[in-house]
Design brief:
The chain is an alpha+beta fold and 81 residues long. The protein has 1 helix and 4 strands; from the N terminus they run ββββα. Strand 2 and strand 3 form a beta hairpin.
Length: 81
């Protein structure tokens, strides 16, 4: 099965939070509201600075993707009114 790179998720145990799941390496869950990341993969590499830069880039991409997705939902709601 081919999965999308990012998925939106919520959970009734955390009703105020919205999550983005990144399904490719490095896999993680981003709590958008709390701006916290839980990594599923070890971020190993020879150069810690390069690993940190790549991690920052993918988390920023997750935030950007989430903002774009939420904007699509807002547009759909406006179109229905």
């Amino acid at each position: 099965m081919k999965l999308p790179k990012f998925l939106l998720a919520d959970n009734s145990d955390f009703p105020e939070d919205l999550f983005v799941v990144h399904t490719e390496y490095p896999r993680f869950v981003l709590n958008v509201e709390e701006e916290e990341v839980e990594w599923f993969d070890d971020l190993d590499g020879d150069d810690e600075e390069t690993v940190a830069d790549e991690a920052t880039k993918v988390v920023e991409a997750a935030f950007k993707w989430c903002d774009e997705e939420l904007a699509k939902y807002d547009e759909e709601e406006e179109d229905e009114e």
